[in-house]
């Protein structure tokens, strides 16, 4: 997976857009509309708009950083660039967890839709009482995970070539499903009956953004950032591909949500006592069965394999890049960055990701919804460094070539960070505490690694990272004490809790930017335009200098990229 300036494959803009769309249309469309309708009712439509705006703001921050530093898997490296090795490991750890978690959830999605097949063994894959995978369902999900992983293990390039075809098929299936559901009978009364447009209030809408797969669905934008370093013109391709993929994604998801809301039979809605009672294990397939649209059921069952498999092409590649970047910075074993000389795949990194995927499946992967809510919260944490990196680099490297510049960055960057903090809070307690703890646990690991490598002055190394530890601890406290609408104990009343989250997040943003500026001033991030150490000798890795091969400056635009 060599993506140095001299070895770029010259990925075109269309191919990059297809990667983004292919990643956005994974399992999210199969389950997101049903889950969001159950939580927020017709106001789930607003949740999709909020999610798209939020992800769009995050994506534009990463577009500036990614076009200036077109490093494959760069989301795992930007924290190192902006604040030094310790924060780089903490944020890289969070990004890796969020990205690698996408691999098993796609297999879970395919397995849950298999339960809609008209075979006895298929019906036994999911427990109808709670919607969780049974032992046999878990076995099928593990088998699917391993099958896709093995295919990428031998030839990820072969699957990448097929991505455009898979994406077009994945795009066609939801479009046909929307048309068929609307044509079968569209009940406009569903949007006003049983509590009106917002039957469970606006807090439920905000909760749906993070717990029902909305953020999860749009997370495919990361593939554009992580793989955009291989584009012919990253500065133009990355922001255009992001806007194109997210815009098209929003249109299709709104159409899917509208079709689902209008197609549910009013008598079933009444029987369930409202939208909370509309609980489908395989939402669109089960709804199509109720409407006697058997050909749509078959189409959706086919799509349940195509969509997750296509998305996992980018997931497997991106997760491998994350591991390689962490290995390049010295916090993961160096052997994990090894690339097979013939197949070009990072096999040691892929083995690690496979083990992590299996662990998730057997511990928390009981259903798509159970895993999606945790993954969404982890994703939000992985987004935090984007707007902060914009603020840091604007102050420390003002002359760095930026093919794309975030407009009004002085306002939009802190606003985006505050939005991310709110999204983390909306994930609901105790999920916020779980993912915060899972991220902070990387801090003592970083200390052990640095000490074993003989690095002195750990207090100096950790100084630029304390803002993140403090932020996650503070968010956990607010989440635990916050409104009951978001899983808290109700100490903080509704409205006050969100205002406190947003205002405190702005304060943490400026603390984080100052910490990054100081890290640059004292030399923790290297002295060159990328990860270079003294005299351009190579990137600074935990206080030492790596080989120059790990950092390459592209002669055509003087922007750093990396060989991972």
UniProtKB/TrEMBL annotation:
UniProt-recorded name of the protein: Aspartate-proton symporter
Gene3D superfamilies: Amino acid/polyamine transporter I
InterPro entries: AA/rel_permease1 (IPR002293), AA_Transporter_AGT (IPR052962)
Positions of transmembrane segments: 12-31, 43-65, 86-115, 135-156, 168-188, 200-225, 237-256, 287-306, 350-368, 374-394, 406-426, 432-450, 462-482, 494-512
Keywords: Membrane, Transmembrane, Transmembrane helix
Species of origin: Streptomyces rimosus subsp. rimosus
Domain of life: Bacteria
Chain residue ranges for the region called Disordered: 528-564
């Amino acid at each position: 997976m060599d993506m140095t300036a001299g070895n770029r494959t010259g990925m075109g803009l269309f191919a990059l857009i297809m990667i983004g769309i292919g990643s956005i249309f994974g399992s999210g469309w199969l389950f997101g509309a049903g889950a969001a309708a159950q939580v927020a009712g017709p106001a789930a439509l607003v949740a999709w708009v909020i999610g798209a705006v939020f992800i769009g703001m995050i994506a534009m921050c990463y577009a500036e950083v990614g076009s200036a530093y077109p490093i494959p898997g760069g989301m795992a490296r930007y924290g190192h660039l902006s604040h030094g090795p310790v924060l780089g490991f903490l944020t890289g750890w969070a990004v890796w967890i969020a990205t690698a978690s996408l691999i098993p959830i796609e297999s879970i999605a395919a397995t849950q839709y298999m339960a809609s097949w008209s075979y006895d063994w298929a019906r036994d894959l999911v427990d109808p009482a709670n919607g969780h995978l049974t032992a046999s369902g878990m076995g099928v999900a593990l088998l699917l995970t391993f099958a896709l992983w093995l295919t990428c293990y031998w030839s990820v390039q072969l699957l990448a070539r097929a991505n455009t075809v898979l994406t077009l098929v994945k795009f066609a299936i939801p479009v046909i499903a929307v048309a068929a559901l609307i044509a079968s009978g569209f009940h406009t009364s569903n949007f006003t009956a049983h509590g009106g447009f917002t039957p469970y209030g606006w807090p439920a809408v905000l909760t749906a953004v993070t717990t029902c797969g909305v953020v999860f669905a749009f997370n495919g934008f990361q593939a554009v950032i992580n793989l955009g370093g291989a584009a012919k013109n990253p500065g133009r391709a990355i922001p255009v591909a992001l806007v194109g993929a997210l815009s098209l994604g929003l249109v299709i998801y709104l159409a899917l949500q509208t079709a689902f809301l209008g197609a549910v039979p009013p008598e079933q809605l009444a029987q369930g006592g409202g939208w909370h009672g509309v609980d489908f294990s395989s939402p669109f397939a089960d709804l199509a069965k109720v409407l006697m649209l058997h050909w749509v059921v078959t189409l959706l069952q086919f799509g349940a394999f195509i969509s997750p498999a296509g998305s996992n092409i980018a997931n497997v590649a991106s997760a491998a890049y994350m591991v390689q970047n962490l290995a390049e910075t010295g916090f993961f074993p160096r052997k994990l960055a090894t690339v097979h000389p013939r197949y070009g795949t990072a096999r040691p990194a892929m083995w690690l990701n496979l083990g992590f995927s299996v662990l998730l499946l057997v511990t928390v992967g009981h259903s798509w919804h159970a895993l999606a809510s945790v993954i969404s919260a982890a994703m939000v944490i992985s987004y935090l460094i984007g707007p902060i990196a914009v603020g840091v680099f604007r102050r420390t490297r003002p002359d760095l070539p930026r093919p794309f510049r975030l407009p009004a960055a002085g306002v939009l960057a802190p606003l985006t960070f505050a939005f991310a903090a709110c999204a983390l809070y909306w994930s609901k307690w105790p999920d916020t505490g779980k993912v915060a703890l899972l991220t902070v646990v990387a801090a003592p690991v970083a200390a052990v690694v640095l000490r074993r490598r003989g690095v002195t002055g750990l207090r100096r190394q950790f100084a630029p990272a304390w803002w993140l530890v403090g932020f996650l601890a503070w968010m956990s406290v607010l989440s635990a004490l916050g409104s009951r609408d978001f899983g808290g104990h109700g100490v903080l009343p509704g409205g006050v809790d969100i205002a406190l989250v947003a205002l405190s997040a702005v304060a943490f943003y400026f603390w984080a930017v100052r910490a990054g500026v100081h890290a640059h001033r004292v030399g923790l991030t290297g002295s060159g335009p990328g990860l270079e150490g003294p005299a351009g000798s190579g990137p600074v890795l935990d206080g030492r200098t790596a080989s120059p091969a790990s950092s390459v400056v592209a002669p055509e635009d003087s922007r750093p990229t990396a060989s991972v």
